[in-house]
Amino acid sequence: MFVKGKKTIIFVLILAILFSLTSGITASSTKTLVYYDGFEDNKANPKAIFRFNAWHKMENEQLYMGSNINDNDWGEAAEAYIANQRLDFDEENKKYEYVVKFNSNGFRNDLWYSCMVGIRVAGNDKNDFKPGDANSGLYVGIAHTNKAVVYHGSGGWPGGAFSIDIPANFAETNTLYIVDDNDTVRYYMDTPEEPRVLFLSIKISGDMLTAYDKDDNVIYEAANNLKGQTGYFKIFSHSTKTIVDSIEIYSVDDSVPTAPEAAASYSGSQIRSTLVPFRTKSGEIVDSDLRQGLRFCFDVMGVGEVFDYEGKEYTVKDLGGLVILKDKLSDPNIMVLEQVGKIDGLVAQPEMIDVDVNGNMYKSIYIYNIPDTAKETIILARVWLECEDSDGNIIYLYTSVQENSLSRVYQEIVENNEADSLDPAVRSWFE
Ligand SMILES: [Ca+2]
């Protein structure tokens, strides 16, 4: 059945009845408002906790932090606002976006005279968990200068862990955006030229806390005292005149748009029915090193075919596969084309291989040259489709991420009493 060097491959198809039930379309990025305070009717959200009674007021549907109600004048206070709602990460909440509209003018130019916006603040006590307190949370302090200061506990009061130049300031009302995807916290602000400009990102998931400037240069690194810490949103207005117009906190779901089943669906995985000796890069064949291959088969429309998606007609312009080892990928939602070259080990297969199984044609993603030491290794695969509507708009749709290993497919074959279809050498390779 097997001829050395010959490329003919005979596969055993596992029918994937389970997968025929998967539904069509899931939504793309959705944002759910989980906390809001616009100070409407000059009232704060009932969940808001303030540090002091006398050091804030609400006027013009805005919160004045540092304004003393006794003399109705600004003073050098350290007033705090806490949104008393824990923001943890779970199946429903994988990413948070904070949008804070405010202005702040410090009594001095020192950066610790600023409006410090904290996330993942460990507790909701009104006096504790300040920016300078150990492991209290991640705070960025901004006021009327084009500089920001960052605190992450572990000392650093008052000067902060580090500071960074920023593209605008908050002397007049401006918007700060903080996006936390449970791996990296990204900071953006509006500038007179451009909305939502990235100015800082802080990787907070590893053993080290690492900060990057807008160009991805490492600007600060320290032991990650905040690893795994979640908690509350807090504003700590330190000796500055801060006027907060609104606070919005969203839970963001940006799982990728799924192709309707009619356009692309998973059909099953295959292994080789014979083994192939390893072929080195120089073309040398190593008879003693016998390898297997794993194929993910998909029922996919071809280029030029048309389907409906969210009420519109789309034409398939291009398609291909994506493959990665499961232990290389932290989140299947980032297994997308634009991450190829950015995520280690994520491989694009632009040419899917046609497979004919009992007269039915499938497109496949093929991982070959798998040694027996990797037969248990879980591999992830999905298909992407580039599609165009009648107005020329391009969208990318994906199948759900499939996972399999050589051993799993082999076990299915055995359980289906189809092991006889495999070469005896294949059976001994697995047993
Ligand atoms: Ca308001």
Question: What does it look like?
Answer:
- This protein is mainly β.
- It contains 2 helices and 31 strands.
- The protein has 2 domains: 189 residues, no CATH class; 224 residues, Jelly Rolls (Sandwich), CATH 2.60.120.200.
- Helix content is 4%, strand content 48%.
- Strands 2, 4, 5, 9, 14, 15, 16, 17, 18 and 20 form a 10-stranded antiparallel sheet that branches. Strands 3-8-19-10-11-12-13 form a 7-stranded antiparallel sheet, with no helix packed on it. Strands 1, 21, 22, 23, 27 and 28 form a 6-stranded antiparallel sheet that branches.
- A hairpin with a 4-residue loop joins strand 16 and strand 17.
- The chain is elongated, with a radius of gyration of 28 Å.
- The N terminus is likely disordered.
- The structure holds calcium ion (CA).
- The site of calcium ion (CA) has 6 residues, from strand 20.
Distance between the termini: 21 Å
Our Rg estimate from Cα atoms comes to 28 Å
Helix content: under 10%
CATH class of the largest domain: Mainly Beta
Specify the overall morphology: elongated
**Number of helices, where a helix is a run of at least 4 consecutive DSSP H or I residues:** 2
Compute the average pLDDT: 89
In the predicted model, the low-confidence regions spanning at least 5 consecutive residues are: 1-28
The helix-and-strand class reads mainly beta
How many structural domains in the coordinates? 2
**CATH domain fold name of the largest domain:** Jelly Rolls
Q: Can you summarize the main beta sheet?
A: 10 strands, antiparallel
Q: Based on the coordinates given, report the CATH architecture of the largest domain.
A: Sandwich
- Strand fraction equals over 45%
Q: Ions, cofactors, ligands: which are bound?
A: calcium ion
Oligomer: single chain
List how many beta strands DSSP finds.
31
